[in-house]
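Batch job 17 of 40 flagged for manual review because the log was empty.
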Amino acid sequence: VQDRLLFNGGVASRPFRVRRAGVLAVCYCHLPSSSGCSDQQHWKLAARLTVHGPIANQVWEFSVNVVSRLEYLGWGLESDNMLRLIDRRGSCTDNSGNPD
């Protein structure tokens, strides 16, 4: 008896990747077919889960030499999480990850 199901189409090396933070629904089809679920009515909500992280593609504009406020949105963010503002040509890992 197995205590888990693998949803990888039978390919053990196939990764499962969540590409954005937020609340996701996990749906289950109890009557699959070779092309997916045999009928839309067989899909059932199995669970909801929260993926922590920032909301992608946020954009801000600021004036130079003016004190500004930055609101950063996401799911499950903690007060000790950090942001690093870098030049658009830079990399987050430049200078060993330390701010310039």
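Reviewer: the log was empty due to a logging misconfiguration, but the result itself is present. The mean pLDDT is 83. Unflagging and moving on to job 18.
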